[in-house]
C-alpha cells in the first residue's frame, strides 16, 4: 500500500469517527467491530508469516548438500581422523553395542573462521551415508516467544521423517554458529534464547534410543567460551574437535586443491606460496588462488604466474591497492616509518625483509613484506621483545627524524600492547606468574608502560647507530617506491653497524 494512502487514512478516520459521534450516531458497536477485525487481521498475518517462514526453512533444509569427501578437504588430518572415529559409532553400531559403548550424541567443531568446519560436517554426512539436515543458529532467533523452540522441534522431526522416507539408518543435524542460541544462560529474566536452548538440550537428551534412525548433532562455533556449560557436558556434545589454522603442509594441500581448475604456469611453486601465506586460513588460501586468477585475467595472459600469486597474498592480507596520492612530505614520512620497521626486522632477524613498499593498500600507506616465517607455536621472552621492537621501529624512526609521532603508528602500538599482554599472561614480565583478574589496572598499565618505554629506547638507539641506512635507502624508496629485500640487504652490507 502506498505511504500516502496510509497517512491519509490515519488523518481521516479519527475525524470521521468524531463527526459521526457529533451527529448522534452510536459509535460503540462500530469501534468494537473495528478492534475485532484488526485483531483478527494481525493474528492471521503473524501466523501466515510464521508458517511461510517455517515452510521456507523446511524447503531450504531439504536441499541436499553437494557430495564432499574428507579427501577433498585440505589439511586438518588430526581433526578429520578424530571426526571419522566419532562417526564410526554410527556406521559400526552393532560392534560398539558388543563393547557396551554409549554412542556419541553430539560433536562440537571449534576453531577460527574459515578453517573448514562446515565442510567437515558435509563430508561427515557423505562418510556415513546419512540424511543431512542443516540450519544456522540465527534461524532460531525470533522476537516471538516460543518460535525458536518450535523450530528446534521441527528440525529434529524433519531429520527423523526424512531418514524414514529415504530408508536410512542415520541422520546428521548440523547447526552452524551455535553460539547464537547456545550462549550462557544468566539468572533473572527469561529470554527467548533460553527457551530455544532448553528445547535443544531436551531434544539431545532424547536422541539415543534403540529405535531407528540414529541421530547425531554436529555443531560449529568459533566462540566456544561463550557456550552454556549444559551444552558442553558429556552426554550432549561428547566430542570437542579443534579445527585449527593449517600448517605449511596443509596450506600446500589446500592450494593444490583450489588450483585444480586453474591454469598454472609450470614455474609456479605452490610450496613457496604456502610459506608466504603463513597464518592464512583455508578460506583465505582459496581467496588467494581466486585473486591470482583475477590478476591473470586482468593482464590478459593465459596462465597464472608466481607474481600473480604474490600480489594475491598482499591483497588478501592488506587489501587492494588504492589510488590515494600523498604529498611529498607525507610520502617521505611514510618511507621513514616503513624503513624503521624494515631496519629493526633486519637487525634482530637477518634476512627477514622481502620488500619495502610505498604503494597504499587498504588503510596502509606503505608496508614491509617479510620472508616466510618458520612454523612456530612457542615463543620466548626474547622473541616477543624483538617482535615489539620491530613494531615500534616505525614510530621510533619518526621520532628520530621529526621529533614526534603520527597517527600511522596506532596499529603498531596496538600490536605491541597485545604482545605485552601475552607476556604478562605467560609470566614473562617482572610481575611474575599472576592471575590477571587479581592485578589492578594501575599495576598492569605501569608494567606495560615500563616494558614499552624500555624497548622503545633500545629501538631508537639501534636505529640511530644505523642511521646511514636511512639516507641511502630513502632515496631509492622515494624514487622507485619499492625496495626489494636484496637491495635493502646490500645497503646493510655497505652501511649498517650491526648490534653487538
TrEMBL record:
Q: Which InterPro entries match?
A: AAA+_ATPase (IPR003593), AAA_lid_3 (IPR041569), ATPase_AAA_core (IPR003959), ATPase_AAA_CS (IPR003960), P-loop_NTPase (IPR027417), Peptidase_M41 (IPR000642), Peptidase_M41-like (IPR037219)
Residue stretches in coiled coil: none
Keywords on record: ATP-binding, Coiled coil, Hydrolase, Membrane, Metal-binding, Metalloprotease, Nucleotide-binding, Protease, Transmembrane, Transmembrane helix, Zinc
Question: Does the keyword Lipoprotein feature in the UniProt annotation?
Answer: no
Domain AAA+ ATPase per the UniProt entry, residue ranges: 103-247
SUPFAM superfamilies in alphabetical order:
FtsH protease domain-like, P-loop containing nucleoside triphosphate hydrolases
Q: List membrane-spanning regions.
A: 12-44
Q: From the UniProt record, give one GO term of the biological process aspect.
A: proteolysis
GO terms assigned for molecular function: ATP binding; ATP hydrolysis activity; ATP-dependent peptidase activity; metal ion binding; metalloendopeptidase activity
Q: Which cofactor does it need?
A: Zn(2+)
State the superkingdom. Bacteria
| Similarity comment | Belongs to the AAA ATPase family.
Q: What is this protein called?
A: AAA family ATPase
